[in-house]
Design goal:
alpha+beta, 4-stranded antiparallel beta sheet, 12 strands, 6 helices, elongated
Length: 218
């Protein structure tokens, strides 16, 4: 066990989950008591992605044959605190994806592609988004319908198809429609129906798939 624990820090990666993941993953006092009353020790470590976004960052320890959710008890054994876990996980994420991350042009909007079901986790890499938003005329707005789907677009960019202009309102509607389908197909693994924007203060909610009229600037 000691040898395994010594190798854990390089194996920690973030994952993006819905709040109900924590409810399902944590032991339930009074229903299934944790041995010795160690309720917190068996509870997954979690933090908000940003602001009022309805997603959480949890952490996983990746082994060749399985993935284990990082709990408070395991964090203590590693000699880390919550900030140390997050920093280690984000560093590992950057190292793992830096040579693989790419964008796919879907005409009306773009998709971020990394492989390994890490697309949603890319929200945690601000330098990546600073680069992707260079040259944008407006805000970079994005949707994260599942762990392996992340779409984004420029809120003010113009687009012409077959000589006909396509408004940003239409492009946003197309992106939200595609995200709605992806989220529905993902079922219990689906993530957020929020439309978020990259701002100088970080990610902020601008609307939802079904109510995105106010997302774009007037």
């Amino acid at each position: 066990m000691r040898g395994v624990m010594n190798c854990l820090p390089p194996c920690i990666y973030p994952r993006i989950t819905r709040p109900d993941f924590l409810e399902n993953a944590a032991p339930r006092p009074g229903i299934a008591p944790a041995p010795g009353g160690q309720y917190k020790a068996q509870t997954p470590i979690a933090r908000a992605v940003a602001g009022d976004i309805d997603l959480r960052v949890t952490y996983a320890i990746d082994f060749p044959t399985q993935r284990t959710t990082l709990t408070h008890g395991c964090m203590k054994q590693l000699g880390l605190d919550a900030q140390g876990v997050h920093a280690q996980a984000v560093e590992n994420l950057h190292r793992k994806t830096s040579q693989k991350v790419a964008t796919q042009d879907l005409v009306a909007y773009k998709a971020l592609v990394t492989g390994d079901d890490l697309e949603a986790c890319m929200l945690l890499l601000p330098d990546l988004w600073a680069g992707l938003s260079k040259g944008f005329k407006g805000e970079l707005i994005a949707v994260v319908p599942s762990k392996n789907a992340l779409y984004f677009m420029d809120s003010r960019a113009t687009l012409t198809i077959a000589g006909q202009p396509v408004s940003t309102t239409t492009r946003l509607a197309l992106m939200c429609s595609a995200a709605t389908r992806v989220r529905a197909e993902a079922g219990a693994q689906g993530l957020s129906d929020q439309v978020i924007a990259l701002t100088p203060e970080g990610w902020k909610v601008r609307g939802t798939f079904g109510a995105h009229e106010a997302v774009l600037p007037a």
